[in-house]
Amino acid sequence: GAGVSQSPRYKVAKRGQDVALRCDPISGHVSLFWYQQALGQGPEFLTYFQNEAQLDKSGLPSDRFFAERPEGSVSTLKIQRTQQEDSAVYLCASSLGDRGMAGELFFGEGSRLTVL
Amino acid sequence: QQQVKQSPQSLIVQKGGISIINCAYENTAFDYFPWYQQFPGKGPALLIAIRPDVSEKKEGRFTISFNKSAKQFSLHIMDSQPGDSATYFCAARNGGSQGNLIFGKGTKLSVKP
User: Fold this and answer.
1) B103 and chain A in contact, CB less than 8 A
2) Is the pLDDT of residue A102 over 90?
3) What is the pLDDT of residues B41-55, one digit of tens each?
4) What b/e sequence results for B72-109 when a residue is b if at least 16 CB atoms lie within 10 Å of its CB, and e otherwise?
């Protein structure tokens, strides 16, 4: 597709369930980022991939959060044993160059997670 | 510690007026300052960006003013239109390969017809 695609767009989970959120970046984009956006707040960095390598996971809030990008294209963010504080919109973004280049980030529409 | 402070939190402007959103930062290692626009239910989209070696950048009705000594930058929207109603985020990136975009908390702009 022409843009960054995320699925599902909406996910409701019961507390304690595991969830998986998928990101399909723009074809050929080297960099992939995951951000978390709480209601009424700005996006907060979670993790960064350069191709298949996860170079930075400093923003992951706990070891319940795990991300992968095994073939350097599609990425999955997994949250285990979800908690209510995990409720947020999870945004995926990609860019053509590596993180050090001041390239534009292209964001997907996000996956809205609600944990009951 | 909030690395990028944005104000105001919300802004109401009449059609045709000027919208001004301000941001301040502390980290002098920041080397790239973009503004993103976000509509409800959509992801942020790049609006305009500036590097600290210039003091102003203009693209159509949108202008970034940058004051390196004060560590402040602002977005001006001239001739504001109802279609500009959205949430605007300033951001900053730490220079070098380890830099991530750090976002402000956002300004919800409403342009009244």
Assistant:
1) yes
2) no
3) 999 999 999 998 999
4) ebbbbbeebeeebbbbbbbbbbbeeeebbbbbbbbbeb
